[in-house]
Amino acid sequence: MAHQITLIPGDGIGPEVAAATVQAVEATGVQVEWEVVPAGAAAFAETGQVLPDSVLESLARTRVGLKGPVTTPVGAGHPSVNVALRKKLDLYVNFRPVRMLAGLPTRYQGVHIDLILFRENTEDLYSGLEHEVVPGVVESLKVITRVASLRIARATFEYARRHGRRKVTAVHKANIMKMSDGLFLRCCREVAAEFPEIEYRELIVDNACMQLVMHPENFDLLVMPNLYGDIVSDLTAGLVGGLGIVPGANLGERHAVFEAVHGSAPDIVGKGLANPTALMQSAVLMLEHLGECEASRRLQQAIEGVFAEGACLTVDVGGSASTGQFTEAVIRRVKSA
Ligand code: NAI
Question: 279: closest CA among 327, 311, 312, 236?
Fold first, then answer.
């Protein structure tokens, strides 16, 4: 039976990388019925809503989504679709694996980077609770709860135990935000105590950034509140070749939405410069989630094969191939595997 999957192409380069990823998934032979629904600036132009009801209705049915990036205006305009979607579906785990791809030169040649960020996805400063106290003074509320902190910590440690990972680092700023990040840390410690076989340590976020740049090989799993996770995941993407590479998943109890870490990249829209690897690797995670493990492995190996060969890479990672040429190279390998 075909899998039903909600496909949100998104804005900017979203439709380009989404089309490439759909082709790559279909090349595996897995049967998929895509329910294509609009969200973001494009949806607003069409329907007057950035997150039309059709998106939530479709995800309520399919429970699995593949999502391109959506544009969020800076400083004014409509609120973030991503934040709304994550909150509405309670997608509390933002899962971001960061691994080197063989064949892709990075600044860290000879260093083994294989880390996973677990970002709390539903609260913190992303609660969107902002108001003007008096003209010239604005307050933005950082919300940290015990429930949300415990469940992201638990998701991290359970993943570590299931996959034989050795170390969890909690990232915080509890030296300054003693109450909010202090609560987050206490929850991490509480959960860590239930997993004595897994090494647990804590790092202040600024030091964590420096350590990640200096010694990325020392990190395994990282767990952190929403804002630090947003920033640190772009940093870690930079360690392994940039935003065009790194996949992600937003996971809740009932729903899973797979998306790249990167945004809508307005600077390269329509030029054939978008690297679809990040969304393709998100689809690798999606296929695994669907139980299509063989197809997932084949797609991952095809992507890695194209990188190892190095002849058909996109411009952001030092090649000269277009989005379409890279996609064709991946599809050829998926089909011949
Ligand atoms: P961005 O990630 O869109 O772009 C940053 C830089 O990386 C740009 O130079 C871009 O060309 C490059 N880049 C990103 N993805 C690439 C890819 N697949 N292939 C080749 N190059 C790539 O970040 P920016 O410019 O800060 O944000 C643009 C818009 O995207 C904003 O409206 C932002 O709110 C939104 N955004 C959406 C996200 C999502 O929907 N999940 C995540 C991050 C940002």
Answer: 327
